[in-house]
Amino acid sequence: MEPNLIAGALNVATNAALEAGRTISQNITQLDRVKVNKKSTHEMVSEVDIRAEADIIEILDAAYPKFNILSEESGKTDRQSDVSWIIDPMDGTHNFLHGHPQCAVSIALVEGSTVLLAVVYDPLRNELFTARKGGGAKLDGRRMRVSEVTRLSDSLVCTGFPHREGKETKQWLRSFATMLPRAQSIHRTGSSVLDLAYTAAGRYDGLWQYGLKPWDTAAGSLLIQEAGGLIADISGDTDVFKSGNLVAGNPKVFEKMMHILKSA
Q: Which CATH architecture best describes the domain 152-263?
């Protein structure tokens, strides 16, 4: 896509994220009324996820009716386009359902395996993270950069728990045991989308996670790259959609984490 078309699509995606964010923020104060269903033993979906997703898709489809859509709740709409929206209407549903303010809307536009634009919106802190390929990353309109910490022993890093029935659980347990004595501190927040955005903003120096899906990683991967950071599959492949097992951070911390995680 041409740069001016990407800029226009970024504006549309931002409006869609803000609209979904209003749905989320309006409902976190009345959780006793929110209907919830189980997707699996450890995964939940609420009616707020569904409504937020519908808000996003309505706005995106009105502007770009021929683009494919891959969204966490409604799955894939294949329109035989080279361009796809990748959507997570609310990452951090468990947090939301407990009134814990750590969740976000994520929208990315992808051409092939290249992420063209990213929007991550935290409606409960009213923070908007955006990026365009080759155009830098921003937080509330201001340029953002990854941190400048160089030593892992001085680093605040984050991780996420893989699904407990998944094959990645043993891998993650080994990686955590290896990383724990080396980093200054390790967080687990329950929102991989915000973890990636915070790493891009320099709030975390690095992160690693297993078993993520494209809607977890698409927008955040571009935020990190455009903020001067690095992100890759833990195997070393730069295609972060390959397995969903990824490491990211500022260049110095990324290099150290990658070395440790490969050995683990």
A: 3-Layer(aba) Sandwich (3.40)
Contact 213, 196 (CB under 8 A): no
Cα Dmax for the chain: 51
- Asked if residues 110 and 96 have their Cβ atoms less than 8 Å apart, the reply is no
Location of each CATH 3.30.540.10 domain in the chain: 3-143
CATH says 3-143 is which class? Answer: alpha beta
Among 131, 111, 133, CA closest to 121:
131
Q: Is 218 exposed, middle or buried (0-12, 13-18, 19+ CB in 10 A)?
A: buried
For the ranges 18-27, 109-118, 238-247, the lowest mean pLDDT is seen at: 238-247
- CA distance linking residue 222 with residue 115, whole number of Å: 6
Instruction: Return residue ranges of the chain for CATH 3.40.190.80.
Output: 152-263
**Of 83-87, 112-116, 135-139, 237-241, which range is least confident?**
237-241
Total-model pTM: 0.94
Two tokens at 20?
A: 């979904």
